[in-house]
Amino acid sequence: MGNDRGTELTTLRPEDFDQWWEHLVRAFGGGPSSAEERELDKSLTEFDRSLVVRDGDAIVGTSGAFSFRMTVPGGAVVPTAGVTMVSVAATHRRRGVLTSMMRRLLDDARAKGEPLAALFASEPAIYGRFGYGAATSQISAEIDTGRVTLALPEGADEVRVRYAPPADVLRECEAVYAALVPRRPGMLARMPGWERAGLLDPESEREGASALQCVVAERHGEVTGYARFRTKLGWGPSGHDGTVTLEELAALDPASEAALWRFLFGIDLMTTLEVRGRPVDEAWQHLVSDIRRCLPRLRDAGYVRLVDVDAALAVRTYQAPVDVVLEVEDAFCPWNTGRWRLTGDAKGASCERTDDAADLALSVRELGAAYLGGVTLLSLAAAGRVRELRPGALTEASVAFGSPVAPWISHGF
Whole-model pTM? Predict the structure, then answer.
């Protein structure tokens, strides 16, 4: 497959992986990458879904997709193309390289029956024109554990927390993770091999911190949660000034979750707990004594695109009854353009083409932003990105599309 500017797009061959990887590393700033990381990524790469664009012998573009399954409102776990590894050489900007890769990835996702695509954007301005909307946010914090205390819920004192080598309790931790997947929109079912990503621990990338550590929470002899973290000892004029960096935390119940946070707050010689990329509604924010000393920061996270509007809207449920005709614009995937009647409630939904008058008009990008329930159609309308054509339809649809649990894409890709 080629284009009129002399480049050729093909799928990646295993023998070309190292060259492909080196181009990708250079495109993302040329930082160091460990042999462990490269080997893991090679083992997870789906070569038939990974793309390379060449100009002669030189690689000038890379991209790919993982065959994920994502939770949507209502708890269904839906086939989703996890778009990743996207780069274009600085020498080949504005020559159609990115567009050709996005075209191929979405066509392939549609052919595979994946109604959704998702990605993390290194540059948020890039992907809107391809129909991706910012659908999830995440919170990070630097908690002053020397001054901030926790108010624990009932039952936390009954939870036992113990250290365990991360690899030794991997099976138990993955069971906890799997049980949580249907509970929150955006969570990804762990595909085979991806459990290894949570254990990746090259010494070259620790920046002076400890090796990866793990504790598990237990109630009645069963593992009900876990936390993976690193520690880095520091000293200042007044004494110890160490930092705990949380890598992953998951728990099945509020008591186990709170017990894990209490442990992280209480590690000897540590005065700061760094929290990265957590759900925006996570309970610790309501357990702490002083949220200001946690320095919370909110930012965009996962971007979602509806590959097939009818299949995507029909597979989720709606928290209030809805019967609305959507006028959808999708220049990049024209099969989605047109009017769709969406009817649904908490039990199920249907979405079919119609000639009826439209109630709301919006692009597929807005549908992607609102799809997981973390962004309201009302807020998008206030920004001029959704138009109400039937009075009352906007509020009806906005409430229906919502989610009682904030969406969160649970691991990177």
Answer: 0.95
